[in-house]
Design brief:
Length: about 130
């Protein structure tokens, strides 16, 4: 799996200098800031570009906060708050029988499987 900084540089979205600067900040603070968070906070990268890169890495679709905020209440209620927080998962749409879910880590197959088991629906991770 490619690293996010390398992918963003390869795609021409960011310069290597910007990535190295963000990585330096990450090392210097000693805090668990993710590279994408640092790049967004410093206005070095539009959120859409970060989402596109992450979706390429995780091989899934991406969803914006704007789309998540439009989620019907009955879809959100398919997953309890406790489970959603624990798994880093937010259901946001139905596609046929499938449940579209935004995950903190869509490559975490255990989390995807658990959401499917809890909701009784096939999960489409994002």
């Amino acid at each position: 799996m490619p690293r996010i900084g390398e992918l963003l540089v390869k795609e021409g979205v960011l310069s290597d200098v910007a990535v190295q600067s963000a990585l330096g900040f990450q090392r210097h603070t000693g805090e668990p800031f993710r590279l994408g968070t640092i790049l967004l906070d410093r206005d070095l990268l539009p959120e859409e570009n970060l989402l596109k890169a992450l979706s390429a890495i995780h091989r899934c679709n991406y969803v914006t906060w704007r789309d998540i905020l439009k989620t019907p209440p009955q879809v959100v209620r398919l997953l309890t708050e406790r489970v959603a927080v624990r798994l880093g998962a937010v259901p946001y749409a139905l596609e046929g029988r499938g449940l579209c879910v935004a995950f903190k880590n869509p490559s975490n197959l255990a989390a995807v499987d658990e959401v499917s088991a809890v909701t009784g629906r096939p999960v489409i991770p994002a």
